[in-house]
Design brief:
- This is Enoyl reductase (ER) domain-containing protein.
- About 45% of the residues are buried.
- The chain has helices spanning about 40-45, 95-100, 140-145, 145-160, 175-185, 200-205, 220-230, 245-250, 275-280, 290-305, 320-330, and strands spanning about 1-5, 15, 30-35, 60, 65-70, 85, 90, 110, 125, 130-135, 165-170, 190-195, 215, 235-240, 255-260, 285, 315-320, 335-340.
- The protein folds into two domains: about 1-145 and about 290-340, Quinone Oxidoreductase, Chain A, domain 1 (Alpha-Beta Complex), CATH 3.90.180; about 150-285, NAD(P)-binding Rossmann-like Domain (Rossmann fold, 3-Layer(aba) Sandwich).
- It is globular, with a radius of gyration of 20 Å.
- The protein is of the alpha/beta class and about 350 residues long.
- Helix 4 packs across helix 10.
- The strands form four sheets. Strands 3, 5, 6, 9, 10, 17 and 18 form a seven-stranded mixed β-sheet that branches. Strands 13-12-11-14-15-16 form a six-stranded parallel β-sheet, sandwiched between helices.
């Protein structure tokens, strides 16, 4: 089969012909992959030079949906033919955190497509316990959005957002869109999505029914909030850009007791006004990845709203043309780009 791999620390991703897995372990299932989304972390990993040499070559990709084609001898669920998505974290199951059920704090936590073979290919063997069976009517393309939706769900849970609250989402990419959609579904009173020189992705937000959008190339955050909501502050800010300036922007529009939830991955430090945090009794929380609870809630959300999520997927690209897919994903013209192994 063809697979998009990192084979050398200092070289770009390449398309490799690798053996198609024919068997799986006793606690695993074999999945024929339908579609795999390109994540912002994939864009970073493609050029990251910190790879341990012993981990390469490695197939990337972790946002995927597919169909189970074989199961291990100890597996009862899922069964052959099941349509599934897969939690991307890989846990040891043996450490103290795992034994008490807190797998997010696993001492040997790994991730599909980072520490373990990923899904930019046609087949993958994964732990059966990581699979979630899809609602019957859910389209497999839409199902490939489950992972970013679960990341967004985790951010919302971390924030403590309640029905009737107001929120600003900084960053109109897939994670920002997923946060905004689910915040409204949870009963948020106003949700504003902000971008910078982001006309195309803000238009995608509008197509998703996110009517309160602002391009900060033409407006300021406080002015936009006042114009769109009639209020100068919000109770929640979700930072999903990875740009340090967004931290200060977000803190500056929080009302007293407000919460800034940071879910963008930052590679540069941010300067914050701690006086503002203290005087306004603000909270800054970090959110990374997702938990099993988030995936179950997301699948219930997708069962109700799956068709409404279609505008999140802007491009479908054959796996063989992965370079074009990555180029699109780096641009602000695309939202979620899917690689299709059978296209």
């Amino acid at each position: 089969m063809l697979a998009v791999q990192k084979t050398d620390v200092h070289q770009p991703l390449t398309l490799q012909d690798v053996p198609t897995p024919q068997h799986c372990g006793p606690d695993q299932v074999l999945i024929q992959i339908h579609a795999t989304g390109i994540c912002g972390s994939d864009l970073h990993l493609a050029h990251w030079t910190g790879w341990p040499a012993e981990r390469l070559p490695l197939t990337l990709g972790h946002e995927f949906s597919g169909v189970v084609t074989a199961v291990g001898e100890r597996v009862r669920q899922p069964t052959v033919g099941a349509r599934v998505v897969v939690q991307s974290d890989v846990v040891c199951g043996q450490c103290e955190a795992c034994r008490r059920g807190d797998t997010a704090r696993c001492a040997q936590l790994g991730f599909i497509g980072v520490t373990h073979a990923g899904a930019f290919c046609s087949h993958i063997a994964v732990a059966a316990s990581s699979c979630l069976t899809l609602p019957d009517a859910l389209d497999l393309d839409i199902a490939a959005l489950a992972e970013p939706l679960a990341v967004a769900r985790c951010a919302l849970r971390t924030s403590g957002l309640q029905a009737g609250d107001t929120a600003l989402v900084l960053g109109p990419g897939s994670i920002g869109q997923a946060i905004a959609l689910q915040a409204l579904d949870l009963g948020a009173r106003h949700v504003v999505v902000a971008g910078l020189n982001d006309e195309a992705r803000l238009a995608q937000c509008q197509a998703l029914g996110l009517t309160h959008t602002v391009d900060l190339a033409h407006d300021t955050v406080p002015q936009a909030l006042q114009r769109l909501t009639g209020e100068a502050t919000v109770q929640h800010v979700f930072e999903a850009t990875g740009h340090p300036q967004s931290i200060a922007d977000g803190l500056g529009v929080l009302g007293v007791g407000g919460v800034l939830t940071v879910c963008g991955v930052h590679f540069q430090p941010a300067t914050v006004d701690t006086r503002l945090i203290v005087m306004n009794r603000l909270q800054v929380r970090g959110s990374l990845g997702s938990a099993t609870q988030d995936w179950h809630e997301v699948l219930a959300f997708m069962a109700r709203r799956g068709a409404d999520l279609a505008p999140m997927i802007t491009h479908r690209v054959p796996l063989q043309a992965f370079e074009r897919g990555f180029e699109l994903a780096r641009s602000k013209a695309a939202s979620k780009v899917l690689l299709l192994p059978t296209a």
